[in-house]
Amino acid sequence: MKKRGKKALKKKVRGKHVILSLVCLVLGYIMAFSYHLTLVENKHKSKQVTGGHYERTLDLRNQLILLEQANRKLQREYNKKQAKVLQIEKELSKEEEAYSAIAGEAEKYRMFLGKVKVKGPGIQVSLADGEYNPDEQNINNYLVHEYHVFKVVNELYVSGAEAVAINGQRLSSKSYIVCNGPVITVDGKQYPAPFVISAIGDPAVLESALNMTGGVRDQLVNDNIIFTLEKKDSINFNPILGS
User: Fold this and answer.
1) What Cα–Cα distance (Å) separates residue 213 from each residue in 8, 46, 179, 221?
2) CA 6 to mean position of chain CA atoms
3) Are both 137 and 211 inside the same structural domain?
4) How far apart are CA 151 and CA 210, in angstroms?
């Protein structure tokens, strides 16, 4: 009786173990299936989010590339326009310099022709007849002649004088000087000695040109001419009237 009871108990226990094992197996399968399904869903959702973000990034990158290309194109056009503007500015600058030079030359010609009023610093040279010497038979050796005046006037012009006048009579390109005994005639007007020659220009330059060794002053003094020179802060010349 005891042996049968033990066998029945063992069978009953084994049956419970089998049922429990089946239950655990089913639960394990359900849990594994559920976990796998969760992973698949999460992966699918992750792919959806990542794909949308990638498309958005790609679109923005393409827009950026297009903007950079447009910017480079505009930059090249800007550089071309800027180079053209610089070239135009250089040409205008050259033209302005040319016009300025022409205007300066025209102003010099107007002053030389005596068409405009001139004012500025300069020098004043006085040429007077030499003292009479009874032993000298030729009185002309002590008189100022037109060639003495010409030497002074020519030296002044060569040294950069802007305008020259003799005894207030302004000279022009058509002026003429003639000696008539003790007087000289300038453009038809007679003037007695002393002859005052005024010139507008750089006083230091004009003075140095006349006073250089062996120059105009020395030549006139050797001809018994009384030569005096004075610097002037301001000299005025009016325009020459007439045609």
Assistant:
1) 160, 107, 27, 12
2) 123
3) yes
4) 10
For residue 83, name the pLDDT band (cuts at 50, 70, 90): confident
Distance in angstroms (rounded) separating the CA atoms of residues 168 and 148:
18
First-last CA distance in the chain:
170
CA distance linking residue 102 with residue 89, whole number of Å: 19
Q: Is 43 helix (H, G, I), strand (E, B) or coil?
A: helix
User: Where are the strands (E) in the chain, listed by range?
Assistant: 118-128, 163-166, 169-170, 177-180, 183-186, 189-192, 195-200, 226-237
205: in domain: yes
**Per-residue pLDDT at 31:** 66
pLDDT of residue 50: 55
pLDDT band at 72 (very low <50, low <70, confident <90, very high): confident
Range of the domain at 74: 1-88
> How is residue 4 written in tokens?
């049968």
The tokens describing 180, both together, are 């008539």
Cα 194 from Cα 166, distance rounded (Å)? 10
Q: For all residues of the chain together, what is the average pLDDT?
A: 79
Residue 19 lies in a domain: yes
Q: Which residues contact 130 (CB under 8 A, 6 or more apart)?
A: 141, 142, 143, 223, 224, 225, 226
Report pTM.
Answer: 0.57
